[in-house]
């Protein structure tokens, strides 16, 4: 009888509600509590419950990542992006890292970005640091190849530029107002010269990035949006200096300075939003172990993977990845190609069968003779293909670039035409009007609108735990027509879970604690699933097991209180795994294990279909399980592809010419990521696929993808609306300039007002964006 | 109004001084992280309350 009485309790660690007599909702939470208790850090719970900041109610996942590649890093500090930082307790705990590990000098958390900088003594093994962070419940993503000092310097300069531009522009405007207000004579002269002096740093040092970009765009024969800005600046400078020297009144220093300030400020904000970027070391290393046991003819020795050679025989321990392609030398082995194909049920291979780097040994230690290494292994070739695809990634010509082109051409033609009209009659007037036109129709609002909207949308996405690699992801997302899903780990939870548990008779905890005690030390996916399911359901002490024996990939057996117990696989009619619990050779309980569909997957997929996206299931797993999942999600059979190798996934994505999104989590999705317009890596992805993806969802589940698409589309709508305002202002000011009515005063008013309109329009956003902002998930 | 000939340079000097202070603090990295210090202050208070 199953337990029908669900007694709801709150996990003592994470606070989420669960049904079960124990104190913790899962062994993950329990282990974190144990660590905190052992190190006298229980103050964490006081802080958490003080509710100073929204606190976390997500149970700790127990997936362990292989960080051994970090032990090679030899520096005194390293940065990690941490998942799961929510509350002030987390901040306190992370900064207590020095007391948890030897050799750590300081750990400093940037709460807003969830990035911790760990300063340690030289020669510290950062792999241990990463493992410690993970054991505390914060999955770390190492940020290797940190910002080089030049980049940091650039960032600081950017901020300095914004500050200087703001200060000078403000003061220039004060002086300008006095002149517009009626100051004349030597006082006005003085003000003009001071304005000129104040504008010098702004128009040279502060505006430098614009000049640089415009020059670059000329050299590359493209027209970026900086080009018309620079034109406007130069025109304004020339006119203003000329007026200064000839005592006329056409001084534009105030408009130019405020223009530079507004543009710099919006770019700086966008840059700050884009700070979170993952930099990874060589892709291959994140997956495979660093060392391998090699037989050199006499005895076994440890060698670095790079030093291995073809035909050498290496031994692979249980539950480690094969570091190279090879032929099996042992009589038999159990391997899982989960990371390559997504199929997470181990299968048996015989001597002479081929294994690939990236497969995992699910059985006893086995030996292979190497056939291909590193770049020549299948995995290496896949990664090479990924890199090749990324180069060819058909970048959609962005909206901004297209408008910039048309804009520049349009303005130049109008200005030249205007000048030519006045050529025979009044050259000076013609020059004056043409230059006024160029200055005033500068696309300051265009250059403002897009960065502001993108920063806003990045912030909304970030609050949902969505991290984007570059700013024009939103545009590509909004244009997507197809969305490809991987199955294992993306639409399903990616690990075995107990789908149902049947006991012959409901006698308290005896059977459950027996199974738990028997499976406690096994690493098999089935064991882990059973442990996870049973942990919250057991409140009695675990019994002692004698004569414990694990028959790899088959089951476990042992003696408890003199009685023989066995937990093993039993035959099943379908694809799920059935596990039988035997006491004294009689079946007393049965568990059905499978890869559960994520609970939000059906609604998420329906929502995506409603948004107009074609959903396609693209999996490396076998036909039967893929079809089962497709049926549960109501995906038509024509849009289901099973048994796809990583290369085949890529081909399938490329077969669809319209922009596509690929959602996945494993090494087998890496090439497809590169081939699609936008690659989304879901929570729990291998570090390797994070490198190849454009978007990373750092919270479990795919619900946020629906929100992401909505955000992307709204961002485009908002950009178009801002563009509409911009067009309106440009037409108005352009006409005024053509008709000769543009004066520095009018320019000085129109520019800030137009910028303010854009700013307010962006802040107000659209109705849908406001709703999304309001429900930013905890 | 001739006093402005004296006031303007003084005001400008003060402005430049403030600007210099800003540029210095930006270079010092004080604007790198604006969110965490707000919260870190509270932490110390908590710990002192305990002891």
Core attributes:
heterodimer, A: 778 residues, alpha+beta, seven-stranded mixed sheet, six-stranded antiparallel sheet, 28 strands, elongated, B: 51 residues, mainly alpha
Q: Could you walk me through the main structural features you see in this protein, from its secondary elements to its overall organization?
A:
The complex is a heterodimer of chains A (778) and B (51). With 778 residues, chain A is an alpha+beta fold. Chain A is 47% helix and 19% strand. Chain A contains 27 helices and 28 strands. A seven-stranded mixed β-sheet of chain A has the order 16-28-27-26-17-24-25, sandwiched between helices. In chain A, strands 8-7-9-15-10-13 form a six-stranded antiparallel β-sheet, with no helix packed on it. A six-stranded antiparallel β-sheet of chain A has the order 18-23-22-21-20-19. In chain A, helix 8 packs across helix 14 (427-440), helix 9 packs parallel to helix 26 and helix 20 packs parallel to helix 25. Chain B is built from two helices and no strands. Chain B has helices spanning 4-27, 36-50. Chain A binds chain B through residues 43, 46-47, 50, 52-53, 88, 91-92, 109-113, 156, 159-160, 163-164, 167, 171, 187, 190, 194, 198, and chain B through 1, 4-5, 8, 12, 15, 18-19, 22-23, 26-27, 29, 31-36, 39-40, 42-43, 46-47, 50.
């Amino acid at each position: 009888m199953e337990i029908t009485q669900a007694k709801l309790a709150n996990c003592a660690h994470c606070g989420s509600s669960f049904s079960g007599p124990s104190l913790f909702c899962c062994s993950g939470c329990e282990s974190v509590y144990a660590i905190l208790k052992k190190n006298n850090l229980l103050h964490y719970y006081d802080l958490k419950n003080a509710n100073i900041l929204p606190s976390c109610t997500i149970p700790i996942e127990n997936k362990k990542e292989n960080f051994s590649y970090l032990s090679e890093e030899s520096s005194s500090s390293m940065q990690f992006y941490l998942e799961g930082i929510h509350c002030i307790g987390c901040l306190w705990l992370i900064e207590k890292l020095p007391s948890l590990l030897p050799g750590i000098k300081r750990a400093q958390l940037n709460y807003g970005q969830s990035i911790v900088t760990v300063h340690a003594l030289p020669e510290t093994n950062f792999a241990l640091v990463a493992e410690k962070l993970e054991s505390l419940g914060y999955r770390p993503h190492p940020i290797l190849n940190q910002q080089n000092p030049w980049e940091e310097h650039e960032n600081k300069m950017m901020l300095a530029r914004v500050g200087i531009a703001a200060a000078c522009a403000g003061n220039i405007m004060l002086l300008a107002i006095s002149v517009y207000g009626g100051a004349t004579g030597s006082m006005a002269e003085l003000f003009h010269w001071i304005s000129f002096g104040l504008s010098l740093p702004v128009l040279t040092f502060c505006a430098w990035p614009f000049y640089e970009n415009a020059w670059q765009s000329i050299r590359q024969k493209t027209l970026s949006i900086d080009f018309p800005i620079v034109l406007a600046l130069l025109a304004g400078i020339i006119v203003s200096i000329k007026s200064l020297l000839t005592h006329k009144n056409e001084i534009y220093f105030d408009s130019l300075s405020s223009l530079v300030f507004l543009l710099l400020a919006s770019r700086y904000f966008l840059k700050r939003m884009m700070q979170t970027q993952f930099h990874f070391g060589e892709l291959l290393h994140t997956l495979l172990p660093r060392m391998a046991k090699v037989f050199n003819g006499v005895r076994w020795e440890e060698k670095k993977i790079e030093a291995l050679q073809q035909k050498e025989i290496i031994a692979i321990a249980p539950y480690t990845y094969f570091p190279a392609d090879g032929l099996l030398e042992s009589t038999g082995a159990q391997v899982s190609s989960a990371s390559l194909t997504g199929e997470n049920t181990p299968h048996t291979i015989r001597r002479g069968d081929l294994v690939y780097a990236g497969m995992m040994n699910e059985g006893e230690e086995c030996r292979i003779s190497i056939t291909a290494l590193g770049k020549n292994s299948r995995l290496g070739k896949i990664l090479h293909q990924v890199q090749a695809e990324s180069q060819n990634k058909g970048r959609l010509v962005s909206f901004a670039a297209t408008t910039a082109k048309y804009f520049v051409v349009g303005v130049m033609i109008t200005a030249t035409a205007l000048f030519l009209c006045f050529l025979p009659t009044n050259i000076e007037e013609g020059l004056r009007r043409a230059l006024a036109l160029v200055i005033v129709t500068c696309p300051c609002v265009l250059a403002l609108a897009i960065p502001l909207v993108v920063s806003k949308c990045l912030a909304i996405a970030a609050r949902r735990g969505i991290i984007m690699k570059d700013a024009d992801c939103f545009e590509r997302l909004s244009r997507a027509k197809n969305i490809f899903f991987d199955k294992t780990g993306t639409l399903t939870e990616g690990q075995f879970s107990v789908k149902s548990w049947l006991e012959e008779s409901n006698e308290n905890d005896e059977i459950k604690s027996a199974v738990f005690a028997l499976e406690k030390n096994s690493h098999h996916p089935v064991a882990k699933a059973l442990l996870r399911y049973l942990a919250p359901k057991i409140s009695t002490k675990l019994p002692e097991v004698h004569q414990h024996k694990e028959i790899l990939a088959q089951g476990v057996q042992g003696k408890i209180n003199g009685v023989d117990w066995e937990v093993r696989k039993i035959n099943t009619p379908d694809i799920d795994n059935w596990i039988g619990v035997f006491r004294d050779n009689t079946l007393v309980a049965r568990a059905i294990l499978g890869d559960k569909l994520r609970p939000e997957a059906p609604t998420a997929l329906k929502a995506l279909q409603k948004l107009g996206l074609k959903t396609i299931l693209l999996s490396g797993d076998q036909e039967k399980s893929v079809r089962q999942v497709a049926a549960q999600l109501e995906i038509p059979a024509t849009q289901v592809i099973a048994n796809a190798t990583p290369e085949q996934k890529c081909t399938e994505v490329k077969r669809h010419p319209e922009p596509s999104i690929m959602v996945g989590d494993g090494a087998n999705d890496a090439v497809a990521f590169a081939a699609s317009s936008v690659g989304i890596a879901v929570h729990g992805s291998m570090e390797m696929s994070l490198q190849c993806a454009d978007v990373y969802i750092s919270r479990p589940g795919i619900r946020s993808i629906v929100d992401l698409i909505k955000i992307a589309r709204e961002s485009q709508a908002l950009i178009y609306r801002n563009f509409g305002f911009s067009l309106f202002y440009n037409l108005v000011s352009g006409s005024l300039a053509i008709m000769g009515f543009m004066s520095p005063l009018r320019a000085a008013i129109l520019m800030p007002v137009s910028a303010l309109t854009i700013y307010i329009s962006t802040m107000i956003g659209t109705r849908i964006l406001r709703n999304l902002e309001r429900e930013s998930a905890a | 109004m001739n006093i402005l000939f004296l006031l303007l340079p003084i005001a400008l000097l003060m402005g430049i001084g403030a600007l210099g202070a800003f540029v210095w603090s930006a270079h010092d990295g004080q604007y790198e992280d604006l969110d965490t210090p707000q919260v870190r202050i509270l932490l110390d208070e908590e710990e002192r309350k305990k002891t």
